[in-house]
Amino acid sequence: MTPQDTLSIQRIVGFIDNIEKLKITDIMVRIMERAGKRQDAEVETLKTLANEFKSRGYSLQDAFAHLDTNESGTITSAEFRDALRAMKIEIGKQTLMNVLHLFDTNGDNAIQLEEFER
Fold this sequence. Notes:
Layout: H1 3-12, H2 24-55, H3 60-67, E1 74-75, H4 77-86, H5 93-103, E2 111-112, H6 113-117
Antiparallel strand pairs: 1-2
Helix pairs in contact: 2-5
């Protein structure tokens, strides 16, 4: 790893200290801490969404239909984002993509009903 690579990784994890050199294990710990914080935000977003649907008396199929606004049988990132905004749930683009990937088990960048139910 070149010094430039190390500096790039330090920037990615949000830690730059030109005096002190970080060990790769320290960098990995920081990456894992950030991943944990992101995961917590994603779980909270899903809980908020689930509670909103529950308060409306939606079944899983009703919730899916609510999110699938164009009735294509899949939920796209745009549909998901728009539905969250309509419910006054604001999340960042990265959190949105991470939440979608939690559902999207086949990797086609959309959520089918079967994935949503799982």
